[in-house]
Amino acid sequence: MELLCLGLNHRTAPVEVRERFAVGPAKLGETAAGLLALTGVAEAVVVSTCNRTEFYLAAPAANEAFDLLELHLAEMTGLHDSAAPHFYRIGKFEAARHLCRVVSGLDSMMLGETEIFGQVKQAYQAALGAGSTASVLNRVFQRAFGIGKKIRTETSIQEGATSVGSVAVDLAEKIFGHLKDSEVMILGAGEMSRVTAQSLVSRGARSIFVSNRSFDRAEELAAGMGGRAVRFDEWQGVLERVDIVISSTGAPHAIIQRGEVEKVRRARKFRPLFFIDIAVPRDIDPTVGEIEEVYLYDIDTLEQLADEARERRQQQIAECESIIAAELAKLNLPGV
Amino acid sequence: MDRWLLVAATLLAVVGGAWGMISVHHGRRSSWTVAWMIAVLLCQIAFLALRGEQRAACPLTDRGEILAFLSWSLTLFYLLVGPAYRISLLGVFTAPVVVVFQSFALLPGVLEADPGKVAGGNPWHETHSATSVLAYGALALAAVAGVMFLVLDRQLKEHHLQSGLFHNLPPVRELLVSLVRLLWLGGGLLTIGIIAGFAMPHDQSALGHLLAALAVWAGYALLLGVKTVRGITGRRLSLLTVALFILSLGVFAFV
To answer: Which domains does chain A have, with CATH numbers?
Structure first.
């Protein structure tokens, strides 16, 4: 019995191809069980995320199983010869190694991302529930999860925020702890500020105020996030109560001056105030950051922090690979 | 024997603090810090129990005992407050203060080698001594939290966010909340201590000590009043908490 993996991912296939092979979470078990109907396929797990669809099989003859599976998928999707170049075929030890890399986030678009671990686990559980796994895939997947956990605890591959939005959210949590007592104001209804505010809401931020030159746009964005729109000439009034301000207007000059913040300090009882300036040119006068209780981060600083985290993750790849190699070498896995 | 218990408590605090600092330097938070500090507390309790038996009173007679009692109080509040507020790193900052206090206590001549029984014990006097030193423990821990805030504030202001210390420090708001609660707790205990101090029988020589204690109390009351009524920045609150605590140690000069 051999372990094999046939798949496509964000590196080998564009989204218009990937979406044809995508399998919804509710259908993972059923699809895996369906693969057992192919001649010679003894076990199957289907992993499907937005960036990859992979079929892990245990079969006595790998080449035959690869061919049958490709044919089956071509028929299923209606993509015949055009899909073949996008597939990768990996067998035996390399398939096990590949699964470990996937589970650890080493093969992800965002290096070290953690979501993939849960997604693969969900896929495996679905296959297990559907009865499409046995001794080979059970051991391989369980070991891969063990190695994934080891990598997570022993390396810093998953540490540090790697996008501007997540750096801002991490900083907000470093200043305010739980965000459930924090209120947020967005100045300018740009996409970046929307995404950052959404992340803050998902981490528990209590309320959102949106202020924009176009009040209609502010209302639209506020409605989308369960927040409140504020007229652009009234945002100074809201500054008294909020803890976090995200600014990304298209103004050609700074719209938040030191004097405006100084005015509300007393009313705020000098509570910490976190300014996230993601506009270019900057919306917030840099001297605002000199106010004692103010923490001011502009786009360059946030990007630099994200770059540093990405670089640190890159430096961890070799260590992760050696953990995978050492752990796999210790095991006498079936099918590899 | 009692002296050796204090030596053991000091060495354990050195190990606990160093262990915690090394862990933080490597970007980890050591849960062992709490264990080391529990061991420190046990040695301090044993030391104070022995001295209390020898004195047949609360062991707060010489400066060495006061410093040891203060260290015990500081360790106790850390163990009560630190884990509850998930600020175990507080132990890493508390341990050096405990080491400094206890090292002073261990200097030749500071701790009476042969403590005699305290004659004519008075409950007001014992209440005054015990609550005042407990108050100092809470206020010392508030000062430690203040130092932690100042370190974190500086790192956040200057965008130096890569150190292991930064990752392990609790959030700004949590630090400030625990600092203020410790100030209220210390202030409350100090109030009881001062009331008991005026109620206990005292002669002219104790007046300087009581007036100094009153000045310290007024300082903390003013700080808490300003914080509550007007508000104050975290940095000023922390600086004033540290400064007030250092100044307040001067009270012991009158003991």
So the answer is: 2-154 (3.30.460.30), 164-304 (3.40.50.720)
